[in-house]
UniProtKB/TrEMBL annotation:
Lineage: Bacteria, Pseudomonadati, Pseudomonadota, Alphaproteobacteria, Hyphomicrobiales
Pfam family, one: PRA-PH
Family named by the database record: Belongs to the PRA-PH family.
Pathway named in the protein's UniProt entry: Amino-acid biosynthesis; L-histidine biosynthesis; L-histidine from 5-phospho-alpha-D-ribose 1-diphosphate: step 2/9
Subcellular location: Cytoplasm
Catalysed reaction equations from the record: 1-(5-phospho-beta-D-ribosyl)-ATP + H2O = 1-(5-phospho-beta-D-ribosyl)-5'-AMP + diphosphate + H(+)
UniProt KW keywords: Amino-acid biosynthesis, ATP-binding, Cytoplasm, Histidine biosynthesis, Hydrolase, Nucleotide-binding
One Gene Ontology cellular component: cytoplasm
Protein name, entry field: Phosphoribosyl-ATP pyrophosphatase
GO biological process, one term: L-histidine biosynthetic process
A molecular-function term among this protein's GO annotations: ATP binding
Gene3D superfamilies, per the entry: MazG-like
Species in which this protein is naturally found: Stappia indica
């Protein structure tokens, strides 16, 4: 179990996006703009789906990590805070009333 969160990754992405470090993939990707980043999200989503259908857990793990990373970069490029996405997910959970039940049950 790791304590690393999407919020941690989001902070790293924000710092790398702000940097002028030419060796940073995040910096380079941000420079290409939202359309290119959105294309990468689409590609990574397809690769994730293919890995899931193939049933290869290791491949799926890697592709899902690529997808989440690129999705966070896309949100950053469009100035949509990750916190807003999490708040929307929380709102949906609150609507169903399942949050309390889930916290009482083991994973
Ligand atoms: N999580 C990631 C991450 N996941 C995937 N990738 C990069 O995403 C790229 C995807 O590879 P592809 O083959 O699909 O794309 P490509 O051919 O390199 O590029 P395109 O021409 O298709 O755009 C690879 O270069 C990976 O290194 C990531 N790059 C960075 N991070 C995180 O971002 C942090 C900052 O990275 P830098 O910005 O590089 O310092 C790192 O410490 C990581 O935490």
């Amino acid at each position: 179990m790791t304590g690393f969160t999407l919020t941690d990754l989001d902070r790293i992405i924000a710092a790398r996006a702000r940097s002028e470090d030419e060796s940073s993939y995040t910096h380079k990707l941000m420079g290409k703009g939202p359309a290119k980043i959105a294309q990468k999200v689409g590609e990574e989503a397809v690769e994730t789906a293919i890995a899931a259908v193939a049933g290869d857990a290791r491949e799926l793990t890697g592709e899902a990590a690529d997808l989440l990373y690129h999705l966070l970069v896309l949100l950053k490029a469009r100035d949509v805070p990750l916190a807003d996405v999490m708040a929307e997910l929380e709102r949906r959970t609150a609507q169903t009333g399942l949050e309390e039940k889930a916290s009482r049950q083991p994973d």
